[in-house]
Amino acid sequence: MSTSARAMWAVIGGAILLVGAGRALPTAAPCSARPGAFSIRGRQTQAYDRERLAAGTVVDASGAQFVLPTTKHIVIHVAGGEGMCWSGGEALGAFPPDASWNTIHETYGMVVGVTNRAGAAAFTVENFTAFAYGKGVSLDAGGDGDWTIRNVHVVYGRDDCIENDWYNTGLIDSSFFDGCYDVMSSLQDPGLDVPDGQANVVTIRNSLLRLQVMDGIYETREAIPRHEAFWKWSATRGPRLNLRNNVFFTDDSSVSSNHADMYMAPPPGRLNECAGNIMIWEGNGPFPERLPSCFTLETGTRGLALWDSVVALWKARHPYASPDVAPPVVSLFQPGPGGTSVLSGTIDLVATAVDDRGVAGVQFRLDGRDIGSEVVTPTLVRRDRFTKYALRWDSRAVPNGSYALTASARDAVGNRATAGIVMVTVRN
Question: What pLDDT is recorded for position 220?
Answer without folding.
Answer: 53
